[in-house]
Amino acid sequence: MDKGAFAARVAACERKLYRVARTMLRADADCEDAVQEALLRAWRSRDSLREEKYFDTWLIRILINECRNIQRRSPPTLPLDRAADAADPEKGAPLAALEGLSEKVRLAMVLYYVEGYPVGDVAKLLKIPAGTVKWRLSQGRKQLRKRMKEEGP
Amino acid sequence: MKEFHLGDPFPPTPEGFHLRLKGTLEGLKEEPMRRRHKVGTAILVTATILTLLIGTALAAGYFSGEIDWTGRKISEDPPQEPFATPTPAPPGTEGAEARNEYEHTILENQPEGEYWQIRWEDRGGTSQGCRKAFASLDELNEFLVEGITPFLLLTEVPDGYTFEAAYCMFYFSADILDKATVETEALAEGATLTKVMPGADIYALTCEYAVDFRRADGSYLSIWASLSSTDIDDYGIGVNGDESYEALKLPKMEHALFIGSDDHRHIAAIAQIPDMEGYIYPDQYWDGIAPDTFSHVDYSFDTNNMTKDELIAFVQSMR
């Protein structure tokens, strides 16, 4: 894959990369660091991608690993501006409710409901049994419904 | 079955993220690609030596991949491992969102014990299985003992935890489907709603139960049990690089694995049962497909607070 093709594929999934990074990391600066490291790692390893149709899931997996590296380096905190957004219903009650979930549940919810991966692929991305994925989705749905009902319309 | 819809709740992609991505791509150099397999081999050899020295099945160093029930590594996952399923093409946002919202408003009305399915003329659809909720652990157990599925039952609420929620789901037998009342209803825009009302006999055919316990500080212990038709030897349990893992010997379980990290402990286990036959989806029966043969029960125990020993003790208390 040459640089042009690589860049085109990355650009096409930019939104997806942001959503996954944002699910795991609260600070925009951390999301930027994670995507930069993920892209560099993916570019260096591009020969191991056997078929280009698997590009997106391959890159997502690298990004998840980079996000975990950043999490290990610093404790999770909610930046003051994000806290304000979470409290402002105009800025997105669903996102605030999503952020109230544990990271493991939140990531499963985003990969399944927002990114559209089936349970089997979510299980492979997160390296957990499919049963655990289903349970986390069940927990996420229940908790989100409860939170969004509490926050009102 | 995606009966819950999130849409895209995220804010617009920040300009800073876009600029960093764009700048990183522009700075990429067309240098010769690295061959990674030698590095991977070195990691494997190092991990193997350390494992032998420690003399346990605990993971040493970094390993991300799949293991079998004995803790044996069956595949290592370099970050760039491709997946069997091609990336799904994102649906046209407006059409998909509108349909998802519509399906949700219909399925919200599904009563307990009924199976509902929405099918669209030009594409698949959504189904929502038969379900029943319970208000206490005792109520769940009283229900489960009346059914024919030989689940192990939880006997106690862990210290410091309270019961939060539980539900069961059900499968179908040919007899049940033969006697079920089936109604179809035309919905808006080329969709059809099929309601399968199997009657109270369905409640003996539990295929899954789940229980959630919670502490006042928000910690959780979640348990999930499900009939499975997968061959025991076909399991590969995923392990992340920050997790240790260990094969366990637990009473009443054919196999069990502990997988743990700083913030999460998990036990996956399976228990063999006498073969049972049934259908998870009525369509399988109506299409003349042979029923699934369920040969064991998968169990999953997840916690973010209990220690490994506490979690093992909890699993051992099941009857």
Overall morphology of chain A: globular
Helix coverage percent of chain A: over 70%
Class computed from helices, strands and strand pairing of chain A: mainly alpha
Strands of chain A, count: 0
- Beta-strand portion of chain B reads 25-35%
Major sheet of chain A: size, sense and barrel closure?
none
Write the layout of secondary structure elements.
The complex is a heterodimer of chains A (153) and B (319).
Chain A: H1 3-12, H2 14-24, H3 28-44, H4 55-73, H5 80-87, H6 93-99, H7 103-114, H8 119-126, H9 130-151
Helix pairs in contact in A: 2-3, 2-4, 2-7, 3-4, 6-9, 7-9, 8-9
Chain B: H1 15-26, H2 37-54, E1 65-67, E2 73-76, H3 93-107, E3 115-120, E4 125-128, E5 131-134, H4 137-146, E6 161-170, H5 174-179, E7 181-186, E8 191-197, E9 206-215, E10 220-228, E11 237-239, E12 244-248, E13 255-261, E14 264-278, H6 282-286, E15 292-303, H7 308-316
Description:
The complex is a heterodimer of chains A (153) and B (319). By secondary structure, chain A is mainly α. Chain A has helices spanning 3-12, 14-24, 28-44, 55-73, 80-87, 93-99, 103-114, 119-126, 130-151. Chain B has 319 residues and is of the alpha+beta class. Chain B has helices at residues 15-26, 37-54, 93-107, 137-146, 174-179, 282-286, 308-316, and strands spanning 65-67, 73-76, 115-120, 125-128, 131-134, 161-170, 181-186, 191-197, 206-215, 220-228, 237-239, 244-248, 255-261, 264-278, 292-303. In chain B, a hairpin with a 4-residue loop joins strand 9 (206-215) and strand 10. The longest helix of chain B is centred in the first third of the chain and has 18 residues, at 37-54. The chains are: A mainly alpha (153), B alpha+beta (319). The interface between A and B is large, with 80 and 60 residues.
